[in-house]
Specification:
heterodimer, A: 244 residues, alpha/beta, Rossmann fold, 6-stranded mixed sheet, 4-stranded antiparallel sheet, 10 strands, 40% helix, globular, disordered C terminus, B: mainly alpha, ABC transporter involved in vitamin B12 uptake, BtuC, 75% helix
Chain lengths: 244, 329
């Protein structure tokens, strides 16, 4: 199978703290892979390693057959990995379309072309009517959507979504899930960190479970939810035993 | 890149035409030498302010040491004329090259610093330069150099008997810089600078090489400020480190842009008009009362910054600031 992203034995240490240890898994082209795990499991660190925010202490990250381990964040973006942040990093003094425009300019020199692409992305993300609103005036769900739009404007082959659903209501979550599916339908592979198990299970083809910086399990949503180790990690070992 | 530059900014260009016509006619109506000098200085500060605005306003890297490039521009034309009898028409561009080269080598390490640390380090940088120039015997040292060239052709050496010639010449330079900034305002380059100012993490996540863009902005900024310094030296025909490379000059450069409106096309021009006018009038009318002019100057600056923190541009409404960009969408 054709792998868009291969993570091989990646370890990240911050001094004495091991945030990620010996992590290996792969994302197949066109797939949606969910990353789950309790708080502090090292999910966001893993994203930062893939997107070039930090360099791993050990291991390699291979994207589309190229080793991107030591590359800087902006180069990795130019190569086709877009990302969003857990805490939205919107450009509050700029309008929504300008936020998306800076993404669109990543692979376009011509302003007219870039602006046309902005319109397409805004339509895809359902933000057309917010085009000329300043990003600082948006609410949290809208900011999260804007993050996705900005990342999508860079024409990614792989999109890293960091807790896009956190803090959203059920209706907003539904909209976000349909947006993720729409994006995936355009041929973009997705790696998504998610806390909400319902969402992960409904949207992902496969799920990676991280616990204390290590991969506990990689499998289909059904395999993951029925695995005793996952239940133990989420509900505590005691709960697992009591349940049995 | 922008075929429709003229078309989409028709209103702005119309306003500019009116402004230029007023700037051309005003000194013909008000035939007072003091006013002519004031207008000429306004143009110098407008150029310098627009230059600082590139790195400080658009890119958000507050440099408190731009007097370095102002001084480099002034010294290059001064020493070129004094030592080598070289016309400023040539040496202005040599000054630009020198300033950009210095900006490149200094900017590479300094721009890695962020926020206040960057601001303080640039301040230290220009102070170092001032002390080096004070001790530089060949360059005139602390006493400075008069750069008047005897029996020189007025236009070839940019040394005019009629002060209005300076004004009109500087007006052309200021206009050229303004058009450059206006053109860049909606370019990929300036959008990237705004993104870096807004959020560096976000900037990198959309593929912006923040270090490279900051350096480019710093170099362009240095180049424009250098032109301003060169013109100022031609205007007063004298160079001296204690006049050109002081913290006062650096602060005045920052204030021009901040008062007018940072990160806006017209801000530095409005700031230059307000600040230079206030500073020249208070100096002339109150200068003899032992520093009262500086007190009043300070109070007026505080009042303006207090009541329009967005700069004078913000008083004119958002139209000037964002109108054209919104129109483009």
């Amino acid at each position: 199978m054709d792998h868009i992203l291969v993570i091989e034995q990646v370890t990240k240490r911050f001094g004495g703290l091991v945030a990620n240890e010996d992590i290996s898994f792969a994302v197949t082209t066109g797939e949606i892979v969910g990353v789950v795990g309790p708080n502090g499991a090292g999910k966001t660190t893993l994203f930062n390693l893939i997107s070039g925010e930090f360099a791993p202490t050990q291991g390699t990250v291979v994207f589309c057959g190229t080793d991107i381990t030591a590359m800087k964040a902006h180069v990795i973006c130019q190569r086709g990995i877009g990302r969003t942040f857990q805490i939205p990093q919107s450009l509050d003094d700029m309008m929504v379309y300008e936020n998306v425009l800076v993404g669109a300019l990543c692979k376009r020199k011509n302003m007219e072309e870039a602006l046309a692409h902005v319109d397409e992305v805004l339509a895809l993300c359902g933000m057309t009517e917010l085009k000329t609103v300043y990003a600082g005036k948006l609410n949290v769900p809208q900011k999260k959507r804007l993050e996705i739009a900005r990342a999508m404007a860079t024409d990614p082959k792989l999109l890293l979504l960091d807790e896009t659903m956190a803090g959203l209501t059920a209706t907003e979550r539904k909209d976000a899930v349909s947006l993720i599916r729409k994006i995936n339908a355009t041929g973009v592979s997705i790696l998504t960190i998610e806390h909400n198990m319902d969402v992960v299970m409904s949207v992902s083809n496969r799920v990676v479970v991280l616990v204390s910086g290590r991969v506990l399990l990689v499998g289909t949503p059904e395999e993951v939810t029925s695995h005793p180790d996952v239940i133990a990690a989420y509900l505590g070992g005691g709960a697992n035993q009591d349940g049995q | 890149m922008q075929k429709n530059f003229l078309k989409t900014n028709r209103g702005w260009f119309l306003g500019l035409a009116v402004g230029v016509a007023a700037a051309v006619l005003f000194p013909q109506v008000v035939r007072v030498r003091f006013v002519w000098n004031l207008l000429t200085l306004i143009l110098v500060w407008a150029i310098v302010g627009m230059g600082w605005n590139v790195i400080g306003g658009y890119c958000g890297q507050v440099s408190n040491g731009h007097s370095l490039f102002y001084g480099l521009g002034a010294y290059t034309v001064g020493l070129a004329a004094y030592k080598f009898k070289l016309s400023p028409w040539v040496s202005i561009w040599i000054g630009v090259l020198i300033s950009m080269t210095v900006a490149f080598f200094v900017g590479k390490p300094l721009l890695r610093l962020k926020g206040h640390v960057f601001a303080i380090s640039t301040m230290a940088l220009s102070e170092c330069a001032r002390i080096i120039f004070i001790n530089w015997k060949w360059g005139g040292g602390a006493t400075g150099v008069y750069i008047f060239t005897k029996n020189a052709n007025e236009w070839a050496f940019m040394q005019f008997k009629n002060p209005l010639n300076y004004y009109y010449l500087f007006l052309v330079f200021a206009l050229a810089v303004l058009l450059l900034i206006k053109y860049l305002d909606k370019s990929k380059f300036f959008y990237y600078l705004r993104t870096i100012k807004g959020n560096e993490t976000a900037a990198e996540s959309v593929g912006i090489d923040t270090a490279a863009y900051k350096l480019r902005a710093y170099m362009l900024s240095a180049a424009i400020v250098s032109i301003g310094g060169s013109l100022y030296a031609q205007f007063i025909l004298y160079i001296d480190p204690s006049m050109l490379m002081t913290l006062n000059v650096s602060m005045m450069i920052v204030l021009t842009a901040v008062m007018g409106g940072v990160g806006t096309v017209m801000g530095p021009i409005l700031g230059a008009i307000a600040l230079t006018t206030i500073s020249e009038y208070t100096r002339v009318y109150l200068g003899r009362f032992g520093g009262l002019d500086m007190v009043l100057y300070g109070v007026l600056v505080i009042i303006i910054v207090l009541y329009c923190p967005g700069g004078i541009v913000s008083l004119l409404g958002r139209r000037l600031k964002f109108g054209a960009r919104r129109g483009k969408a």
